[in-house]
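=== RUN LOG ===
request id: a7f3
mode: sequence -> structure
chains: 1
length: 193
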Amino acid sequence: MAAGEQCIFVITGPSGVGKGTLIRALRQRIPKLALSVSATTRAPREGERDGVDYHFLSEAEFERRVQEGEFLEHVHYAGASYGTLRSELQQSIAKGRPIVLEIEVQGARLVRAALPEATLIFIAPPSLEELRRRLQARGTDSSEKVAQRLTLAEQELRAQSEFAHVVENDTLERALAELEAIVRASCSLLQGA
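=== RESULT ===
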């Protein structure tokens, strides 16, 4: 381990591309990898738990934390606010644990500016049509919200070239193997773990 090494991974890509699924599987393979729990103003989806899936905040509480500088990054996306609390990173770094942030493209750009040492990984769908199918199959959004997310996805997909690593999530096992290889190669704390 390099003295003071901080392994921070930012996993981004369009909504519905499978970031969460890949991260859950990655953390099963690499239990030492911590997950930063993002904050959001959107309502919880069925089965989501506060403090586990997200920190669910009111608009007023989110804005208060923005004003107090508690966020590393924060954006408004698809009708809600999202952000990464600095405390999430500080806790993992203090414990010497590598950490992964699951955030959207705007937020990834902000993290890259604030933490240029972070490893940024873009998850891409095999096609826009497959992404549409996945969003509709998820069944958590109205048809209007799916259309809004697809419009955003088209813009986000154009940003792939900004990222050093792009993983196409065509099949879970193949994408997971590629993601795991990138993460392990980028962090001496995880080599041999």
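=== NOTES ===
The longest strand covers residues 71-77.
Helices lie at 19-29, 59-67, 86-94, 105-114, 128-138, 143-157, 172-186.
=== END ===
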